[in-house]
Amino acid sequence: MISQRKRLSSGLSVTSKVFVRSRNGGALKIVREHYLRNDIPCYSKSCQHCHDIVKADAKGELPTFILSATPAKLNSQVGHYVVLDTNIILHCIDLLENIQCFYDVIIPQTVLEEVKNRSIPIYQRLRGLVKSEDKGFAVFHNEFNEHTYINRLKNESINDRNDRAIRKVASWYNTHLNENNSPEKIEIILLCNDRDNRTKAKAEGINALSLTEYIDLLPNAEDLRDLIPADSTLSNELSNKENETTFPEFYSEARILAGIRNGTLYQGILNISPYNILEGSVKVAAFKKPLLIVGSKNLNRGFSSDSVIVELLPKDKWREPSSTIIEETTLGANDNAEDADENGDDDISGTNGVVSDKERLLLAQEAIRATTAASEEKRLQPAAKIVGITRRSWRYYVGQIAPTSVVGEDSGNSSRSCFVVLMDKTLPKIRIRTRKAKEYLGQRIVVSVDAWPSNSRYPNGHFVRSLGEIESAEAETEALLLEHDVEYRPFAKNVLDCLPAEGDNWVVPDLINTDDAQLKKRVDLRDKLVCSIDPPNCVDIDDALHAKRLPNGNYEVGVHIADVTHFVKPNTALDQEGASRGTSVYLVDKRIDMLPMLLGTNLCSLKPYVDRFAFSVIWELDEDANIVNVKFMKSVIKSREAFSYERAQLRIDDKSQTDELTDSMRVLLKLSKKLKQQRLDAGALNLASPEVKVHMDSETSDPNEVEIKKLLETNSLVEEFMLLANISVARKIYDAYPQTAMLRRHASPPATNFELLNDILNARRPGMAISLESSKALADSLDRCEDPNDPYFNTLLRIMSTRCMMAAEYFPSGSYGYPEFRHYGLAVDIYTHFTSPIRRYCDVVAHRQLAGAIGYENLDLSHRDKNKMELIVKNINRRHRNAQFAGRASIEYYVGQVMRNNESVHEGYVIKCFVNGIVVLVPKFGIEGLIKLELLGDVNTADYDENKYELKFTDLNGKKRSVAVFDKVMVDVKSVKDEVSGKRKAQLLLK
Fold first, then answer.
1. For the whole model, what pTM was predicted?
2. Per-residue confidence (pLDDT) for residue 131, from 0 to 100
């Protein structure tokens, strides 16, 4: 390779790299040119030199100069700018975002690209800082500046070259600013935690500091020290202790790659059991059943949702899933965070830490049971151990400081270690250092995980911020949004700038006298008797319907969907924000919008009595609801009325109502019943979930009542036509874009998913079984599972069956063959989401693809590129799942608040049995609660029959009792606060 640089007449220079490649005996000369500029500004307001150059060359809008002319001063009383290296950003992004520090920051292009390659989420947060007008973060394109570009030296690693490039930026800024008429001296500080890189920088005359050294120079250092990520000091301290915990070292990258190639290692996502923190599972294609990971050493520092590499254990170590409840709060409950790793390895069936005598007995029984149960081959699962972690799922976590870990008095500036117990009970507690542990007691705090050394029983992290007092509605709501990674910050100015300038005064333009060619393509449907039917008080109305009888005896039925894509154009800041959020999130007391409120509740919402843009699907259906033909069109509609489900039902049922709008709803209801029957005949599933609604006091906004959601015929009316629209649109966009159509699939469940449920049925309800030959067979078998003595039993079984199903997912059509498009639950061959574009980004993409398919407008490249579509669906699948979990968590929290002062007795059903407890579902509240054996009776009398799924014990009154799965029980329901985790939850006690 030969490198050379030459100056061009334009004032640019070019660096060339010449390679000679030999192939088939011939020589091929390859020249790669990299153009360099001499007019890239430093972006400092103090630099007159760069101002003059930019003005002289300006041919349009001038770039914004970001860095302050009079930056903040440190102890040297000299203003300073900060140059960041890559690892500072990757590990300290939350500190960079803190409003108390980090202003006038220079991000070298080299660093920006390294961050993008290593973490897209952190890169996006960094871009947010760069866009912020308050912080002063400037990206300097050093790789295109002839003064700062450097070639890679012979035998120099990429990392060493990039470190040298970053040092070059710091050195250049130092010379450039102080030689070009700056009013006063500005000091350049290179922030870097790499000791070797700092040594080299200092040798080159650069002021290089570690993060801790820099923070200590700031005037508010006292408040910022707790935010510094944990570094190697904790690990070094632990390595000096005797009898420290030692986890197995991870395999090398080469060994992992070789193992995956030869089939001795497997890769998958780790899922920790919600009832046993020492048991995880990993699904891999090579095995029908998930691989079990049992014990802390085999889990080897894995977090739930980590992408892990596992190695199969010998067959004599395969086992069945645990029947013992083991929670994080019972393990090492008395550990001191300062010396938690001195307790040694008290590993009983994989357990580390201090455990109670009761837990020790149960764990010992579990270990014996696991070895004697080997004869039950059908229950055995292959076991494995984690030998590598390829991607950490670490994020912000919410929890509270464990009171038992805060010992002694706070000692001024001295940091003390303490434990943070997380809200997610599948995760271990985090060890942090803070000077304010006692101050944070009783508060919800946010922490970040920094590392989990092999010689530490617990991961190390650092404090990020406090959310407020535990149980305050504001703190708990923000906590659940953070826990489920829901973006809830206000929309940025550049996003809001994409909205129509008229704001609330926007009106549909005149279609006849317009010069807009696209507007002229719209079909005027304002004469149709359109109405919407939604939940009470709905303001973001996505859909509306109409129906009328045709002269030939058939019916015209229209579904009209809010035309969001008229306002949300591809590749705008508004579109990017919607794509990032993926979905709106509905909590009990608020809605977190995917798109700004002006769109969701006004301009796009199909409100009654006003003209609105819509995307319409209009069918001709025969008397049996079969499709004769279908048309798609962008339209203008005017809804006649916005009904709630209940109000629409009352109007349909009121025989005195004979107006056209009511008659059209009756037509819709009649046809919807036939559509539903067609689906059920084809094998569509009628599953169930324990859904409840929390009523809020209109004056105080406090929760005051919980009721089970009641479904009316009008609920089904809307559902059936939305399903029909989604199916029709899916066929149309797949025909037009067979590789990138935005679709949704629901895979059939593997038989192994229902093994346990069928085994329980066989033991507790002989003669009943769930069939899995097809969705039709499953639906019919569920219909047969009736208990004449208990009407709720069939609903309970449907709830439990739902949990055995696969999750539905979005996908671009080119990712699967057509047979795999099938939606198992709906029993249709192809499906998408089209009917809720205000609250789902999938529907936005489907709208754009449908507009392209009917020739209304050209489809953006991002929705015709398979790789880009893969990225879109990956994000919206995650966001959709998180939104569901956040919604359920909100209901759980508010149900707990309702029960806070309302202890009462209700019917419940046992849905799980363990050696040391049971799980009971209470239909009235839609909640399920764990009842540990120690609250029921004498642990030493417990006798768990795993073949009958039955737990026998002596209760606190000395009476012998037994409970089993499917049993109806009376439970005392009250809300209690867990003093360890701080989480309020329903406590259930058997009566």
1. 0.84
2. 82
